[in-house]
Prior knowledge:
By secondary structure, the protein is of the alpha/beta class. The protein has helices at 3-8, 24-32, 77-89, 108-118, 137-150, 167-177, 187-190, 193-210, 245-252, 257-274, 293-299; strands spanning 10-17, 50-56, 59-65, 95-101, 125-130, 155-158, 219-228, 234-242, 278-286. Bound molecules: guanosine-5'-diphosphate (GDP) and magnesium ion. Guanosine-5'-diphosphate binds at residues 18, 20-26, 39-41, 46, 130-131, 133-134, 160-162.
Amino acid sequence: xxxxxxxxxxxxVVAIVGAPNAGKSTFINSIIGEKISxxxxxxxxxxxxxxxxxxxxxxQIVFIDTPGIFKPNKKNNLExxxxxxxxxxxEDVDQIIFLYxxxxxxxxxxxxxxxxxxQQKNTPIILALNKIDKIDxxxxxxxxxxxxxxxDFDASFMISALKNDGISRVLxxxxxxxxxxxxxxxxxxxxxMPMRLLSAEITREKIFESLYQELPYxxxxxxxxxxxxxxxxxxxxxxxxxxxDAHKKIILGKGGxxxxxxxxxxxQDIEKILNQKTHLKLFVKVQENWMDNEDRFSLWGLxxxx
Length: 306
Ligand code: GDP
Ligand code: MG
């Protein structure tokens, strides 16, 4: 790539913040055009951070979501750690999108969150009122005004993530406002990125299912290798990262039996989506302090190599 081309590039990390069921996953899916986030009407299904990478003209945008931020119960240490990690994760993003379910009334939780967001002084925050297909226009304008009174948003948008309405205006805005900087992903890596992320997400879901959610949030899954064979088979290698040896033991189970079950369940789901024979290899690694800054890029699935 020539220098002049690089100079034009823009890059930004955008965090989507919103209550459970506000439509964060749907929003990101409508941008990426692939089923990356696991959309569910169940609360808090999304646990990992990177949701997708999108290219708008010269701008590459990495979307992350922040599942821990809406956690009303801050009494126990684990919950506190989750909330803390969620806020930490948005500290150095370039833009925050506050996604709000327009069919919902503003409550104390919304107000508390906006107050806390207002402390995030260096990060521009925009409002995206979602699910506008569900309510009438007059109510929308009132709601937009009410929210803008509570917080000084840099811009406000009205969207329906489900009907793909208004999304392009948000993207155009991001394209205009994100800073100049080199892309983090080479273009040829992006094509299988959605499936890499989705398959990691599936494995993560299977881990949580198998452990009945006993384990805390600090598990990440990364897809390390993705090979397409000539006969149509696909081989995927993934690493499960956890911060404690005890967690590793639980994930593995007796003689690796639990990991085997997790791998089998994940493989079946991935196979259904890809419609190709899939081989899935899982590793479990203990990585202490995985929330530290140094590791952040790899957590996001961003390689610091680029
Ligand atoms: P998340 O918890 O914030 O990630 O929310 P999801 O993306 O999982 O969405 C929660 C529910 O709201 C799902 O049933 C979605 O289909 C629905 N939903 C999301 N966006 C819209 C929208 O624009 N309009 C309507 N009517 N429903 C939506
Ligand atoms: Mg979600």
